[in-house]
Amino acid sequence: MDELSVTGIECFAHHGVFEFEKREGQVFVVDLVLGIDTRPAAASDALADTVNYGSLVDDVKAAVERDPVDLIETVVQRIADTCLLDSRVEWARVTLHKPDAPIDATFSDVALTITRTRGNAHD
Q1: What is the largest CA-CA distance in the chain?
Q2: CA within 20 to 30 Å of 119's CA: 10, 25, 100, 107, which one?
Q3: Is 98 designated active site?
């Protein structure tokens, strides 16, 4: 299985447990690694035979930026589900970064990484 990576996708959304997070919003950053078979696209040289990462990024941004929720666990699952909508994606490893999380300490990042496969998307 080949791996397609898209990293550093910046989104602005209103997720968080605290009211001010929902009101003011903040930056979230998404990293994707997708398990796909690139041989059909390599043979045909046709975009239709692979995952269109430009469209995927648009869909991921939309998934992050809609419907505020409390937890990053909910958002990262939503992203994985979006990636797995394309039947060519066998698995998705998604990292959601929340660099401005409301923590009363010096830190560089909060991130959650999940891996979902076609068979366990909601397990």
Answers
A1: 53
A2: 10
A3: yes
Mean pLDDT, the chain cut into blocks of 10 residues (123 residues total): 97 97 97 98 97 98 97 98 97 98 95 92 54
3-state helix, strand, coil in the chain (%, to 5): 35, 30, 35
Whether the model pTM is above 0.90: yes
Full DSSP string of 87-119: TT--EEEEEEE-TT---SS--S--EEEEEEETT
Which structure tokens are listed for 62? 């939309």
Question: CB-based burial of residue 54 (10 Å sphere; 0-12 exposed, 13-18 middle, 19+ buried)?
Answer: exposed
Give the helix/strand (H/E) hosting 3: strand 2-13
- Residue in the structure block whose two tokens are 């080949």: 2
| Domains of the chain by start residue, with CATH | 2-117 (3.30.1130.10)
User: What pLDDT sits at residue 47?
Assistant: 96
